[in-house]
Specification:
This protein is α+β, with helices and mostly antiparallel strands. The protein folds into two domains: 156 residues, 2-Layer Sandwich (60s Ribosomal Protein L30, Chain: A), CATH 3.30.1330; 240 residues, 2-methylcitrate dehydratase PrpD (Orthogonal Bundle). It has 18 helices and eight strands. A hairpin with a 5-residue loop joins β5 and β6.
């Protein structure tokens, strides 16, 4: 029996990922190159789109104790990465591997044999890594998806893809356009309400992974410790231990951990582990607080993850990486939708909270993955949950208010156009800021 479109899109877009997807992409490209270039490492060069280059700068790399950077992600991919593990490419990295990688980077820097630069024009997701050894020179290019390896070239011979296709993609800045025609608030709501629970087996895996990384973030000190600070102030009696705080604490805990280099994998959503955590943990935490049944939580988590896919897909070429911070401006919409589903909200109430939330933080830039992403997400999710409470009273932003339109479709289209027309060079600006600071690594 053929799977329906909702199940297929969840299985396509919900992928386990160990660490932030930008460092993972750098490591995956490098590990893939290494498969075709054994021998002594002579030179490594990387170039990519602005969103990829700035995205790898400040976020913790898994299994490194919070170390960061494109150089280290790439060299670890070469030395210890397993390309066959896809988005969990760094799963086998050890402390010894990190020490060896750092020594190699130091040696390569000393002779000017390692570099990372910006490619423009390019699609939102684009990375080209060239590994030169004493035996081969191999170039691997990926685009559109963080694990989307499209071209492999060994010693001038094309093994996968074509140079012409890559050139065309670069010149057109062509991101992949996805079929979102079957996705809407109404269709997602109906599917999550009426589907056989057996169709949501993939969501059970997402819940398991999400609980693990979020628990890690509460138990251990990562990044800005947004969640642990909340817990400390709950313990002091300064913050109420209510449902909203419970959701915020558990959700941001996962982002604290993931941005700090946790060794726990997350279930990514449309190429983003953070969006996956936000979409999944908010309804999980709400369900736990409300003592909901396992089935109720599974259906709510499906609702939120499908909402995130829907909103991302409507962003066209920005579906998997965008100049706007989707962890504060879009994923919280999905998360609050899942919570609202648990609350028994109507389709119209979910549509209203979505429109209000989309308009709230429209235009917040993405300036790379980093520990403070947890705080941004806290800000966005706090607003989204307030929008949910407002929608329950019949209150929402109207079409006279900024980019908000009468429908969710038209509102997200306005946000897409805002990015395309006004924010398309944001990544280049941030790259130049970091280059001026001398912090490109």
């Amino acid at each position: 029996m053929e799977k329906n479109a909702f199940v297929k899109v969840m299985e396509k877009e919900l992928i386990p990922a160990l660490g932030c997807t930008e460092p993972v992409a750098f490591a995956l490209a490098a590990a893939t190159a290494r498969k075709y270039a054994p021998g002594e490492i002579k030179r490594i060069t990387m170039e990519g789109s602005g969103l990829m280059v700035i995205g790898v700068q400040s976020v913790g790399i898994p299994n490194t104790g919070g170390k960061r950077g494109g150089f280290l992600s790439t060299v670890l991919g070469v030395l210890a990465g397993d390309a066959d593990l896809d988005m969990e490419v760094l799963n086998k990295v050890t402390v010894a591997d990190v020490e060896t990688a750092e020594k190699l980077i130091e040696a390569l820097i000393a002779v000017g044999k390692i570099s990372l630069d910006l490619t423009t024009p390019a699609p939102a997701i684009y990375l080209k890594t060239t590994l030169e050894t004493d035996q081969h020179t191999v170039t691997v290019s990926l685009w559109n998806e963080h694990n989307g390896v499209k071209t492999i070239e060994q010693d001038g011979k094309i093994l996968l893809g074509s140079r012409e296709k890559e050139t065309a993609v670069l010149q057109a800045q062509a991101g992949e356009i996805f079929d979102a025609s079957f996705l809407s608030v109404e269709s997602i709501y109906d599917f999550c309400t009426n589907c056989d629970i057996s169709e949501l087996a993939h969501i059970k895996t997402a819940i398991e992974l999400t609980r693990g990384v979020c628990k890690d973030g509460l138990e251990n000190a990562y990044g800005l410790e947004v969640a642990r600070t909340l817990q400390e102030n709950i313990d002091k009696g300064l913050i109420a231990d209510d449902e909203i705080t419970h959701i915020l604490k558990w959700t941001t805990a996962g982002l604290d951990a993931r941005m700090g280099g946790s060794g726990y994998p997350a279930m990514s959503n449309t190429g983003s582990g953070n969006q996956g955590i936000i979409s999944s943990m908010a309804p999980i935490a709400a369900g736990d607080y409300r003592k909901a049944s396992e089935e109720e939580i599974i259906r709510a988590v499906a609702m939120s993850n499908l909402m995130n896919i829907y909103l991302d897909y409507r962003s066209n070429e920005y579906a998997h990486l965008s100049p706007m911070c989707y962890c504060s401006g879009v994923a919280p919409v999905a998360a609050a939708s899942g919570v609202a589903f648990l609350h028994g909200a109507t389709k119209q109430q979910i549509s209203n909270l979505a429109r209000t939330t989309l308009g709230n933080l429209a235009g917040v830039i993405c300036d790379g993955a980093k520990p403070s992403c947890a705080f941004r997400s806290y800000t966005g999710l706090c607003g989204a949950l307030q929008a949910m409470l407002m929608a329950e009273k019949g209150l929402s932003s109207s079409s006279i208010e900024g980019v908000v339109a009468d429908s969710v479709d038209d509102t997200i289209e306005n946000i897409y156009q805002l990015q395309k027309q006004c924010m398309s060079t944001t990544d280049e600006f941030v790259f130049n800021v970091k280059k001026k600071q001398g912090t490109i690594c």
